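Consider today's protein:

***
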Amino acid sequence: MGFSTLLDILGSIVIGGLLLMILLRLNDAAVRNSYIFNGDAILQENLVEVVKLIEFDFRQMGYTSDWANANPSASAITFADSSSIAFLVDGDTIRYSIGPASELLNTPNPNDKMLYRSENGGTPLASNMGITKFELSYFNYLGDTLALPIVGSLGNIETIQIDIEIEDVYGYDTTYAKTAWRQIRMSSRNRNQR
């Protein structure tokens, strides 16, 4: 009877331990799924906000409220590179650029970078929305890609392709969710200030 009781207790401990491990794994899976779901929702919101701001500014490129200030012989784009651009909007110069990943060493994601937006050469406003890629490609009126850097021929830019990639800033267990957006061949009506 003593040996049988010991076997019963030992069996109960083993079965109880297995049930406890199953419960802990289920809890871990639930926490992981919740964290990833919430991270994905935040990631999508960040992407939408960045895209709304960029599309608003890029669509205003070359706009002027006073037609007397328009200069149809000049391009609204004043600087164009693969990771930065400057253009005129109603007499103001708007500049977008992306910083190096080394600026954000305090975030868990080693790939995220600051997106900078400045007006008239003022202090750039920075946004850390988890952006890991901000690339610009430029095309002429035939749809051919213009070689970078574009110097002296800014008026040849007919359309712009914008590629943005955003990763979750915090991630889960070094796994960072990722989303991307591409605006193919964006063109502003006022690009040549007409």
Observations:
- Residues 2-59 form the longest helix (58 residues).
- Residues 30-186 form one domain.
